[in-house]
Amino acid sequence: HVQLVESGGGSVQAGGSLRLSCAFSGYTYSGHCMGWFRQAPGKEREGVAVIAGSGSPGYADSVKGRFTISQEKARSMLILEMNSLKLEDTGMYYCSARRTYAATCPRNPADFTYWGQGTQVTVS
Q1: 37-44: Cβ within 8 A, 24+ apart
Q2: Which pLDDT band holds residue 28 (cuts at 50, 70, 90)?
Q3: Whole-angstrom distance, CA of residue 22 vs CA of residue 73
Q4: Burial of 97 per CB tally in 10 Å (0-12, 13-18, 19+)
Q5: Mean pLDDT of the chain
Q6: Can you tell me whether residue 85 is helix, strand or coil?
Q7: Whether residue 29 has pLDDT greater than 80
Q8: Burial class (CB in 10 A: 0-12, 13-18, 19+), 26
């Protein structure tokens, strides 16, 4: 049974930083994609950053150079470091996963299977 639990959201001023964490259980790092998605009020959920089991990351253009996705394998954690936050980064952030042996991961939410409950990020 796959479980994903996000933490680390909060309120921050524009230009600030936040670190999101996702604790996961129920499967191993190999043969998967994991990612962070966000959804702002009235907007569709979008892929922010994804990472393959090999460690190959992918980012939305809007966050490149500001966000970093990583895996802490020893602690079964997925991390999203967010720097230089902007007002438009506000939203509910979700951790997600899918089983695949692909070398790279898609950023379409429809391609992901398992989801956490989300953590709110508010930039003002």
Answers
A1: 37/93, 37/94, 37/96, 37/109, 37/112, 38/89, 38/91, 38/92, 38/93, 38/94, 38/121, 39/91, 39/92, 39/94, 39/118, 40/88, 40/90, 40/91, 40/92, 41/91, 43/91
A2: low
A3: 12
A4: buried
A5: 93
A6: coil
A7: no
A8: exposed
pLDDT in tens, 38-70: 999 999 999 999 999 888 899 999 999 999 999
Contact 24, 3 (CB under 8 A): yes
pLDDT at residue 30 in the model: 65
Kind of pairing between the strands at 10-12 and 119-123: parallel
Query: pLDDT tens digit string along 82-116?
Result: 999 999 999 999 999 998 888 889 999 999 999 99
